[in-house]
């Protein structure tokens, strides 16, 4: 059988040879050899390409599915690589802030030590005033830390890296973000602007001893004395001399910047000393401490603390035309707040009050959050956590806690982490808003929204209904009521007493992207370490025009950045300062510990990101990288085949030349 097979094969070869022997137009053997050589050459080129690049897949044709998978992996690898850098940059940013907080801790510890030192009664007022100067400088330095700490020009510790609050009209209200605040928009109406405490002296500054001079000697004061002025539990001392006249007293009080403004009230040719708190509300009532030298009594100054009410006695007795009281307590500030946040942007609606919504053509939802009361011009999270409502008591009205809205606020993120400050110059108010008295023209229901934004377009009315009147900015439109009142001719200040002010709060906490895909982030909140946010000082927000209860003071300051720092000038004030500085230390410690926790988290993120990066690279390598040993063996094989194929192609080309022998 084997013999027959061999004989058949030889016969077949002879037949093929003989069948192609005389053909010269088509050299099938050469064509076959050329085709095989081309295939081998392409394989060799791929071998060279893979060996030179180190990649198994250099183009989609090499492995279409593998290329698609490896490209996705490359996206992950590049994302993880950048995520590691992002996390490391975040760590650097945190370290910048945390390092500065170490200095803040040192400053506060020094302030606490000074407070404890001043609380010891072996020090005189002069000694404590020297200590107070250092405290004032430390407070300024603390403020600089908050305002000047930056990373890549971004401020970290002034609240900007925590949140931002922008008031549409800063002449009415300003706000600061001091904690984690939800992004929201509010319409705020000043229902009652608080009034400042006022003290009207009862003693006339005049020559009583016949020396033709009107000074403190005429009031029975001799030598050097101290006038203690207490505001918000903090007492500052003003040094007076028996030769000081009323102008000297006013100059020294105002120069001390202790939270009050001194002035002269001239009545019937007589001069009286008046003091007005630079901040409204009973919290900043004026009193005179323990009046160690009797200076306040001598000048006829009678004050009261935060719980005091107006005096029952007139400053100028036996004159029916002189109604000024010895002491007027500061009054509360009341605001009404409406949540006007576009729910498509920031879902903020508190639960349980859907029936109070107003949805207009702009699909904006409004929620009345209630009234809020402060015993000063500042509304902190404490004041903004308790909602009140107006109730009728007999023939009058009062306010009481609105338990429902208070609970709703507690369950929501609204009005948290922000401090609102009403301008000191406001001495007017309006009714608070309810859904029943939001008024808009029926032709354009969007006017309700426009009203809140203080941008009512031409021909559209919107305003607040008070009694039978509808206060509206018509801009050429027709009031929606026969009793409508146009505000077109009023000043901006007069309009503000009716219209609301928009406050936009935005969460600007720092977001670090520490993953390869969308949403893989970590949010870091940097504290607001300005002196006011820490409670170390209180700033005047307003034009600075102070009132003495009668007329504007001509000799007062008009600065809009007046500060009232904590005081250690008396033993009692120093005791209270210890607690205030302790609270500030706790805030800094908490903020610093949070940053430390964030830094630890980011460092762990770097660790696992590097592990993920390593594994992704290994996976992508298995798909895309070439096995050099295997590829080299194939390269050697193809190289040999190229050489042999080239030789055989030459032989095949020579085969047809044998036909020439027939021509001899």
Automatic annotation (TrEMBL):
User: What UniProt keywords apply to this chain's record, in alphabetical order?
Assistant: Bacterial flagellum, Secreted
State any single GO MF term: structural molecule activity
Query: What's the short name of a Pfam family annotated to this entry?
Result: Flagellin_C
Please report the stretch or stretches of sequence annotated as the Flagellin N-terminal domain: 24-159
**Does the UniProt entry include the keyword Cell membrane?**
no
Q: Please give the PANTHER family that the UniProt record associates with this protein.
A: FLAGELLIN
Q: What is this protein called?
A: Flagellin
| Species this chain originates from | Muiribacterium halophilum
């Amino acid at each position: 059988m084997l013999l027959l097979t061999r004989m058949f094969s030889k016969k077949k070869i002879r037949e093929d040879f003989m069948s192609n022997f005389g053909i010269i137009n088509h050299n099938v053997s050469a064509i076959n050899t050329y085709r095989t050589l081309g295939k081998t050459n392409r394989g060799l080129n791929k071998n060279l390409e893979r060996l030179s690049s180190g990649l198994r897949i250099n183009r989609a044709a090499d492995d279409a599915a593998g290329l698609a998978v490896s490209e996705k992996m490359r996206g992950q690898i590049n994302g993880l690589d950048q995520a590691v850098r992002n996390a490391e940059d975040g760590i650097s940013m945190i370290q910048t802030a945390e390092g500065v907080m170490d200095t803040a801790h040192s400053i506060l510890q020094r302030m606490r030590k000074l407070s404890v030192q001043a609380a010891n009664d072996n020090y005189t007022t002069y000694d404590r005033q020297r200590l107070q100067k250092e405290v004032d400088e430390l407070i300024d330095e603390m403020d600089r830390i908050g305002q000047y700490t930056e990373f890549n020009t971004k401020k970290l510790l002034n609240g900007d890296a925590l949140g931002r609050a922008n008031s549409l009209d800063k002449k009415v209200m300003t706000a600061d973000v001091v904690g984690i605040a939800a992004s929201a928009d509010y319409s705020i109406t000043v229902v009652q602007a608080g009034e400042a405490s006022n003290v009207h002296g009862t003693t006339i500054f005049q020559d009583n001893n016949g020396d033709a001079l009107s000074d403190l000697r005429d009031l029975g004061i001799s030598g050097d004395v101290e006038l203690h002025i207490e505001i918000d539990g903090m007492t500052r001392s003003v040094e007076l001399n028996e030769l000081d006249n009323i102008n000297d007293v006013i100059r020294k009080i105002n120069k001390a910047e202790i939270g009050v403004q001194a002035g002269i009230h001239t009545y019937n040719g007589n001069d009286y000393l008046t003091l007005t708190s630079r901040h409204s509300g009973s919290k900043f009532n004026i009193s005179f401490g323990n009046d160690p030298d009797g200076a306040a009594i001598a000048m006829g100054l009678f004050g009261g603390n935060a719980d005091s009410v107006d005096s029952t006695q007139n400053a100028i007795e036996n004159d029916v035309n002189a109604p000024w009281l010895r002491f007027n307590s500061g009054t509360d500030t009341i605001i009404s707040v409406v949540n006007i946040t576009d729910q498509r942007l920031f879902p903020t609606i508190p639960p349980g009050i859907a029936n109070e919504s107003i949805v207009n053509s702009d699909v904006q939802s409004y929620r009345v959050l209630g009234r809020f009361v402060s015993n000063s011009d500042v509304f902190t999270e404490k004041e903004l956590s308790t909602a009140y409502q107006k109730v009728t008591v007999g023939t009058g009205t009062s306010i009481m806690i609105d338990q429902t809205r208070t609970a709703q606020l507690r369950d929501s993120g609204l009005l948290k982490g922000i401090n609102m400050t009403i301008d000191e110059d406001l001495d007017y108010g309006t009714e608070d808003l309810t859904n029943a008295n939001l008024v808009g023209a029926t032709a354009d229901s969007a006017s309700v929204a426009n009203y809140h934004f203080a941008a009512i377009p031409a021909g559209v009315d919107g305003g607040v209904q008070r009694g039978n009147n509808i206060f509206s900015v018509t801009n050429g439109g027709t009031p929606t009521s026969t009793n409508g009142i146009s505000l077109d001719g009023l000043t901006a200040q007069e309009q503000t007493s009716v219209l609301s002010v928009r406050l936009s709060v935005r969460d600007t906490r720092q977001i670090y992207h520490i993953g390869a895909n969308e949403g893989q982030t970590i949010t870091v909140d940097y504290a607001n370490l300005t002196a006011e946010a820490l409670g170390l000082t209180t700033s005047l927000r307003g034009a600075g025009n102070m009132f003495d209860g009668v007329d504007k003071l001509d000799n007062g300051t008009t600065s809009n950045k007046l500060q009232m720092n904590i005081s250690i000038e008396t033993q009692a004030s120093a005791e209270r300062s210890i607690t205030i500085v302790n609270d500030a230390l706790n805030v800094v410690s908490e903020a610093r510990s949070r940053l430390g926790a964030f830094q630890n988290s980011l460092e762990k993120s770097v660790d696992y990101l590097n592990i993920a990066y390593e594994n992704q690279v290994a996976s992508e390598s298995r798909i895309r990288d070439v096995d050099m040993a295997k590829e080299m063996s194939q390269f050697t094989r193809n190289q040999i085949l190229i050489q042999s194929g080239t030789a055989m192609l030459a032989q095949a080309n020579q085969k047809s030349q044998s036909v020439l022998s027939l021509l001899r």
